[in-house]
Amino acid sequence: MVLNCIGGFSSVLLPDGTVALARLRGKLRRQGEVVAGDRVWVVPVGPSLRPELEGGEASQAFAAGPATLVIEEVLARRTFLPRPPVANVDQVLAVISLADPPPALELLDRLIVVALREGVEPLICFSKADLVDASASRRLVEGYRRCGLRAVAASARDGTGLDELRSLLQNRVSILAGPSGAGKSTLLNALVPGASRPTGEISSKTRRGRHTTRAVELLRLPTGGVVADSPGFARLDLTGIEPRKLQHYFPEFAELASGCTYRNCLHREEPGCQVREELAGEEGVPGLRYRHYRLFLDEVERLYEDRYS
To answer: How many domains does the chain have?
Structure first.
């Protein structure tokens, strides 16, 4: 498995648990041909490649030794997330801060939609749990669990929820995703001893975080499995989603939708819509997610019309 890609070279996790430096075959050197998480076919090389590394970006990234392998082929991907580019991910760990900055729940629901569309299981971590009252974090965690989603509140500062997170990440390929300032790198440092990921402060003016992660790198967990940090973002478009399929990425709709009058109900203004009747006036997380669904539905319809008009 490829752990990272820098300057035409990759750090590769071998079946025996060791890590080796591999050079990309010429045909694979185009950007995006090999990404973190890829399963690859490698062959050994002869003479040391140290002269090719000296003074370059790859030399700084892989100071442990010379390349001993060549990546000949990228094997078929089970899943692929384009932003940031990472392959064969089992789950997306969506990290959303409970405070400083306040929880970005619309962005969280966008992340959940994108993950489910790509066939990747979402796992929600409400970070910085030490900054809020326990009842506040409990409402969000229980609300998202009511929607059929896995959620946990955690704090890298006092250790809250870290054991539960370790258990959920064990023996799986996971990537952290979420806005800048949510505490992804700080959380990763707590989960992976020696990770030493750079962390940033929250802007006093915008109350948003500053980017500290520039590229995807998979790190091995002590309990088994790998996890990656990723660059933060403030916006996530829902390009490419067919409007009628959007509801399938809201798992809490499934049971209610069976009671709708019309089989092709979009859960907007149709008469006899059980989803709207149950959720439109709901004050908790399910109601908020229904309102986000309505917002997303308008968006994907516009994008779909622009794409095919």
So the answer is: 3
φ/ψ bin of 212: left (φ > 0), alpha (ψ from -120 to 50), beta (otherwise): alpha
Q: What is the mean predicted confidence (pLDDT) over 92-117? A: 95
Domain containing 16: what range? 2-76
Cβ distance 53 to 59 under 8 Å? yes
| Number of neighbours of residue 256 by Cβ within 10 angstroms | 19
237: in domain: no
pLDDT band for position 59 (cuts 50, 70, 90): very low
What local confidence, expressed as pLDDT, does residue 125 receive?
Answer: 98
SS3 content of the chain, % helix, strand, coil (to 5): 30, 20, 45
Q: Which residue has the tokens 């306040």?
A: 102
**pLDDT range class, residue 67, cuts 50, 70, 90:** low
262 and 200 co-located in one domain: no
Neighbours of 252 (CB within 10 A): 20
Give, for 292, the enclosing helix (H) or strand (E).
helix 285-308
pTM > 0.70: yes or no: yes
CATH number at residue 300: 1.10.40.50
